[in-house]
Amino acid sequence: MNYVYKEWNYKPAGIVSYGGVSGGVRSALVEKITLTTLKMMPMVQSVSVKNIATRIDANNNFLPNEHHLHGAESLLNELYKWAQALKTMRQ
Fold first, then answer.
1. C-alpha angle 77/81/85, rounded to 5°?
2. How far apart are CA 32 and CA 24, in angstroms?
3. Does pTM surpass 0.85?
4. How far apart are CA 87 and CA 75, in angstroms?
5. Phi-psi region at 40: left, alpha or beta (left = phi > 0; alpha = psi -120 to 50)
6. Number of H helices, E strands in the chain
7. For residue range 45-84, what is the model confidence (pLDDT) as tens digits?
8. What are the backbone angles phi and psi of residue 12, rounded to the nearest 5°?
9. What is the Cα–Cα distance from 69 to 88, expressed in whole angstroms?
């Protein structure tokens, strides 16, 4: 992340985490601190996939449920809004 420090200044960042029972929420929280240190804006919205092993089919494809789809849509909408708002700061 340090390699692209200047390119990523004042850009929004979305986090998708996965894991066991907590779905990687604690790791995502720590990553938000790193992102703000790099002058990025982490979104409040996120996608957390709990018990990832149960969401993979026989062909190793991810099987999202409604919660995942709604979370992803919300995150992408918010990323778009923030990208537009931060655009002037990147110029």
1. 165
2. 13
3. yes
4. 18
5. beta
6. 3, 2
7. 999 999 999 999 999 999 999 999 999 999 999 999 999 9
8. -75, 155
9. 30
